[in-house]
Amino acid sequence: MTSPAPSISTGKTVELRRLAASDSITELTDLLHRAYARLAAMGLRYMATHQSETVTLERIDQGECYVAVAEGRLVGTIVFKEAARTAGSPWLDRPEIASLGQFAVDPGLQAQGLGRRLLDFVEGRARQTGAREIALDTAEPATHLVQWYGRCGYRLIEHVRWSHTNYRSVIMSKPLGPAVTP
């Protein structure tokens, strides 16, 4: 699955596609660290602020990893988990709930629509798999992210404390319409 994209405001054409075996996990991990640096500066210990390449691979293996590529560089990523692989809280344990995670956009391309394209893409994948909703989690203190997800149609469901973080997470979820067939 690939999705050619119109140029974003930087003039770069961005392609969305599944992570390939030839893609660099080092580059992907570096992208995650850069994209989450603002959150780390806020004192939030998201996994992506400090994870190793091994952890990046483990998280990729939990679902389908998609990347955004511009001029041969990885500039965005998102992992989609179908409902059967989504778990961890009362809401996430429901059989009709898919999820997303390890979501990042290069800081130089943030606030230009690429994150929204990645989100729309995995929402489409969730519909294709028959999920009724797609969920995510983020740090409650990252109010800018909570608000952005809210503008994208996600609503607050519950709070969770993960053992690997230093904050309370919010689980947000978005109802999905039926899959659209071409």
TrEMBL record:
Keywords: Acyltransferase, Transferase. It comes from the Bacteria. InterPro entries: Acyl_CoA_acyltransferase, Bact_Acetyltransf, GNAT_dom. This is GNAT family N-acetyltransferase. Residues 14-177 form the N-acetyltransferase domain. GO terms for molecular function: acyltransferase activity, transferring groups other than amino-acyl groups. The keyword Secreted does not apply. The keyword Lipid metabolism does not apply. It comes from Ectorhizobium quercum. The lineage of its organism: Bacteria, Pseudomonadati, Pseudomonadota, Alphaproteobacteria, Hyphomicrobiales.
